[in-house]
Amino acid sequence: MTTGVGPLVRFDRVVKRYGDHVVLDELDFTVRRGEHVTLIGPSGSGKTTILRLLMTLEKVSDGVIWVDGSPLSHVRAANGSLKPAGEKQLRESRKKIGMVFQQFNLFPNMKVLQNITEAPVSVLGMDRDEAESRARELLDLVGLAGKTDAHPSQLSGGQQQRVAIARALAMRPEILLLDEVTSALDPELVAGVLDLLSDIARSTDITMLCVTHEMNFARDVSEKVLMFDAGRVVESGTPEKIFSDPEHERTREFLAAVL
Amino acid sequence: MSDFFSTLLDELPQVRAGLWVTLQATVLGSLLALALSFALGLMAGSRLLLVRGLSRTVVEFFRGTSLYIQLFWLYYAMPPLTGYELTPLLCGVLAFGLNYGAYGSEVVRGAVNSVPRGQYEAALALNLAPARRLRKVILPQAWVQMIPSFTNLLIQLLKCTPLLWLISAADLMTVVQQVRDRTGETLTAYLTLLAAYFVLAYALTLLMNLLERNAKRRLGLETGPGSLFRTRGAAAAGGVR
Amino acid sequence: MNGFDWNAAGDALPLLLEGFRVTLLATVLGTLVAAVLGLAVAVAGRAPSRLVTLPVRAVTEFVRSTPLLVQLVGAAAVFSSVEPLTVGVVVLGVHYAAYTSEVYRAGIDGVPRGQWEAARALSLPARRTWQAVILPQAVRNVLPALGNYAVSMFKETPFLAVITVQEMVFEARRYGAEHFAYTEAFTLAGLVFLVASYPTSLLMRKLEKRLGH
């Protein structure tokens, strides 16, 4: 394993097309280990696509994504060139990455505890008792210690999203992808979830990539903000820089519209 | 008591045997249909064109040729063609299973497709293996959607079992008609027969409603006791029986 | 084992096609009965009095839950003096009306409440409300489902052979028995069904898509 030196995530001229529509246009960017990066930009600018490519929910049309020095969704052929990976290699790649979705996507056929233990037991081969005690710790962390036996349908949106966060953390990912995790929540529940994520960002060394419309969250949690427009990074920098002294016209327009 | 009912009582062992044949054909036929529904329905969602095509062909074949002809083909045409002869009951089970398996596969396919895409993606993001995604996440949710349609198909299958009479399988219809022949009470005989099938259909519906309630409960959805006695809505929108 | 006799198949085909005309006739007439009777049942199910709606619902439920074959054989035995094709068409029509009435019911339920209220606001009489406002809107949505039931009925017309209607399967059985050529006769009959019903099903699916179901 090539740990340490280079960036943890590197997009190398990544292109994503749907038919004729180009969503990501030869995108280059890197994320360092432990960094918390927020992706902002108008809707349709390709932010969510970046997370979905990283989670291997979709395939790149061109270019290579590198994670920890290895290609994420490619394998080296005998002649040294890269070719698309099969399911087996993809499952290896996914081990490092976890994702929290806008719509929570808890499994309604499993109670809260099993939502969290299912993957550690069946994927990581963790002992069931160990998985359960760890799930309880995580539920405690997200403030839902009493809800182990609840069905997802009995929880509020905010509670469901907390369980989803615990579920993702249970897989001990190196990289956590957060896809508009508060967009589907009632306004009064947003702050609680954001506070929880800030706590996690501060107290762990997980690398976070976050797509959000919550500019306060971007400002408080992330060290780097990437401004997207039309499939490209228009501007990147510290939150202070982007929010108080944006260089690019598109960034100024966007911030004026959302702040 | 009328002649018909007293004769029916006298012949109780025969009637019971006939009922048993009908029930066997219904239950075994449904089990075969259920297995085929899942096999063909899941094949229809395969990434491989060949697998999808095979499923499509089998489904269209058994839906397109009439059940009646399939049954007769198995009973009359297969023995001279292949040298294999099946018992009448087995012919029935096979024909019912194949025919309703073809219809059921559409139910499975539709239900699997109706599970929100986010569920599949969440299972993928948790790195569950493909078979596990299907077994632990997709199918348990799709199952709840399938039950009402499966109930309809089950009743349709039950309603086809009198065809067994035509291939001399001594089912309920055969036995009751024998009593009718002996007593000459045509109207009473056929009304009794209809009532018997109605009771069977209602009992099966009740069982399936129980199953549905159980499946819903596992998704954390509670249903009132009234839902148990609800009869089947005809598959109105699709018009497929 | 005698294999498949192509000569016998060639012999049987004209007879089968002769019977197929009766099959088609029964399907068309049966569908007409089901379409008209189903509509009547659906409208009756909307009657203001429970004295009408409850019996209507009970009878439809009973007809729908009991086997077509028993209904056919029973009716043919009870009305033994009536011509079998007539009995067959009526029983097919009644059986399927129990299904089509549900289709109409859903179609009628699908007409927005505001349409009823608007008709009332204009003081349209009940007859006019149904004729000019509700049914034209309800019927358009039910056509694909009715078509699907017509295809289902088509595939169940072989049941008529049991009450001696000389449709295709009746001819197939007769030919099979006379020449001991069941294999050829039933294989051909099955193929004729497949050739006729598959394109129709495709057409219905297209129609459904077009009407946005």
TrEMBL record, chain B:
Alphabetized UniProt keyword annotations: Amino-acid transport, Cell membrane, Membrane, Transmembrane, Transmembrane helix, Transport
Subcellular location: Cell membrane
One of the GO BP terms on file: amino acid transport
An annotated GO cellular component: ATP-binding cassette (ABC) transporter complex
Broad class of where this protein is predominantly found: membrane
Acyltransferase recorded as keyword: no
GO molecular function list: transmembrane transporter activity
Species this protein is from: Streptomyces fulvorobeus
SUPFAM superfamilies linked: MetI-like
Name listed for the protein in its UniProt record: Ectoine/hydroxyectoine ABC transporter permease subunit EhuC
Taxonomy, superkingdom: Bacteria
Domain ABC transmembrane type-1, residue spans: 19-212
Record-annotated membrane-spanning stretches: 20-45, 142-167, 187-211
Similarity annotation: Belongs to the binding-protein-dependent transport system permease family.
Membrane topology: Multi-pass membrane protein
Database matches in InterPro entries: AA_ABC_transptr_permease_3TM (IPR010065), ArtM/GltK/GlnP/TcyL/YhdX-like (IPR043429), Ectoine_EhuC (IPR014342), MetI-like (IPR000515), MetI-like_sf (IPR035906)
Automatic annotation (TrEMBL), chain C:
The species this protein was found in: Streptomyces fulvorobeus
ABC transmembrane type-1 domain: residues covered: 20-204
Species classification: Bacteria, Bacillati, Actinomycetota, Actinomycetes, Kitasatosporales
Protein name, entry field: Ectoine/hydroxyectoine ABC transporter permease subunit EhuD
Domain of life: Bacteria
Protein family (similarity comment): Belongs to the binding-protein-dependent transport system permease family.
InterPro entries listed in its UniProt record: AA_ABC_transptr_permease_3TM, ArtM/GltK/GlnP/TcyL/YhdX-like, Ectoine_EhuD, MetI-like, MetI-like_sf
Keywords: Amino-acid transport, Cell membrane, Membrane, Transmembrane, Transmembrane helix, Transport
One Pfam family matching this protein: BPD_transp_1
Compartments reported by the entry: Cell membrane
Gene Ontology biological process terms, A to Z: amino acid transport
GO terms, molecular function: transmembrane transporter activity
NCBIfam families given in the database record: ectoine_ehuD, HEQRo_perm_3TM
UniProt main location, coarse: membrane
Gene Ontology cellular component terms for the protein in this record: ATP-binding cassette (ABC) transporter complex
Bilayer-spanning residue ranges: 20-47, 185-204
Membrane topology: Multi-pass membrane protein
